[in-house]
Amino acid sequence: MAKKKEFSDEVKNAKLLRNSILWSLALVGGLTVILSFFLPVGDVANQVIRSIGLTVAPSSFVTFFLSKYVNSITGQSIKKTTESAVTESFDNSLKKLESLIDENYKTIDETLKSDLKKSFVETTDEVIAHLKQLSESVSKEQNATQDQIRKIAPGFSLLASGTKYGVENIHINRSQALESFAPSMDAEVQKAFKKEPGARIWITSSSIKGFLDAVTLHFDGRKTIENIAECGGCDLRIMMTDPEIANLRANQEKRNEGEIPNEIKMNVAYLKRIGVQKDAIKFYRGTPTVFAIATSDRMFLNPYPYQIEAFRCFSIIVMKTNNPSSDIFHQYLRYHFEEPWESATMIAQTYWEEC
Description:
Layout: H1 2-36, H2 44-165, E1 167-171, H3 174-193, E2 200-204, H4 209-212, H5 221-231, E3 235-241, H6 247-252, H7 259-273, E4 281-284, E5 290-294, E6 298-303, E7 315-319, H8 328-343, E8 345-346, H9 349-354
Parallel strand pairs: 2-3, 3-4
Antiparallel strand pairs: 1-7, 2-5, 4-8, 5-6, 6-7
């Protein structure tokens, strides 16, 4: 930067020196011409001095103005040349840059497209693999779920059917079922104590031994019957096998002959002793197929197997539904309680007195 300034100063000083010389020569030329006018006309000195003045002065002026003009022209020429060179160089550089950009753009574009395509393919493969794995997992879960559904479907079907027909519970033996059924009988007793209408306990049995002797945590057969007899307002019906044919069942249950008739007589005597009325007990000339208890809204059913006592076998509890024509409660109420009771025989007075 300092060298550039120093060079500029030198150029400027040279121009000032040149201009000073030219102006001095012009002044000298002018003074020489003026001086010639004071010399005698026709004198040789006059002619020489005037010739020198006329030569130097115009030459200095012409040289000065020419130098200015030339400098201006040269400056403009240099400016134009420089601008042209710079413009041409800039254009060439711009063209090279554009060409380079085009080439690099193509390369970048191809690279980007290649990378994007590769990345897309890899990502797609990963997604497909993940979806395939997910599909396999879902398929396994679906199969497992279907297996579970197939396993529990019968249970749902049974539940739906049981609900439709009024099945409330199932137990493996009579004792467990009586434990579950006890609140229903207690409710009927309480209803009778409160003098509410509709209290009912009906029992269909072989000898009622399995009911009277049953004792669980919340059920005591003898205490239950005693409460029913005591309340007085409960519609009590006890139907047992006629002692005259009871031995037929004894043979099936592998019991001694006369054992069941004696059970019946002993239990009738107990019922009489606790206050059960004679007309609340009847004998049915046939062995029952199901030990059963009916309340106003629920029913206890314990089928008799051929080769063993019923109290050892399963029992079900059903409830009254809103469709009397197609539930278990009303089927057995009619065909196992009402109609058999109508055809059963009253206990003979002599039999009653013997008890």
